[in-house]
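Subject: sequence -> structure tokens, single chain

Hey, anyone have a minute? Need the predicted structure for the following. Not urgent.
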Amino acid sequence: MNRNSEKLFRLAIETSSNRDVVPQEQSSPTDIKWLKSALQDITGPDKLQVEHLKACIAVLQKANTDTTCADCDEQAILEEVADLCENIDLACDLHKIGGFPVILEYLNHTNVKLRYAATEVLVAVSQNNVYCQNALVDLSVLSKLLKLIQLNEKITENAQLSQKYLHGVSCIVRQNKKAFDSFKECNGFECLSTALQLPIYKIQLRCIFLLKNLASEHHEVLKYVHEQNFLPSFLNILSTSDKPDLLEFVLELLSFSCKQYQPFLEDCKSAKNILAKCTNDILLNKCLCNDNTELVNGCEEIRTLIGCTSLSQMES
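Reply:
Had a minute. Here:
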């Protein structure tokens, strides 16, 4: 066994046994760095992190069931779990070690900060991760999050929490047919319709973002947008919001819906006067439209679709 192999072997023993091994010779910092790198190459970078995840879950489980356990920072641990689970493999490992039910218990916690931190974990594990999305659907997480949004009695005071619940729903539902079907069964569109009526920018932005993405993935979404009468909420945003990104999203969704679903185009034509005034006010608002070609183009497109005068015709 050569010198480096022997050192690697001893480091492996030390790591696996959690005890110090008396060194036969002093290792240089360079050697130690190389040995640790080599050990990671063999064991995989996630192995020690999975053990750390297990320890975090064990602490959270004890803290959430044992009221006498008051010496651990649950919020910090939840935040650490969320950070670790930005790695897709570790997110899947969290489920495999039984961590999801422990995290979900915190959605019922009386501490708002802990509910928020637990939802951050759900966001982390479900982003672009079909395995975890399906696992969360099987655990009825969508139903839970949608009910939390609807039952939040102090939604204006806890807007940040409600926005995070919506973020969680969005990450689970997008690009997953199974999750989308569950979303429909849980009356998700009704929940979005209610949330969209709240005059809270980030909640409105999250709702429109989700609707826009779902509409591009599933044509039937346009039917729900039409039948559940989302148009008044869209018009209200166009007439009251001063947020360019929110206005752009609404205009994009309106144009897409008009092009792809004839009944919705007819709805917009019926509201032609209101839409004309909203878009006209936006186009004349230099603070909103200055150097914002996307917003200007969005207004122009919806005006063309419903048969209104274009900006160039207005100026002439």
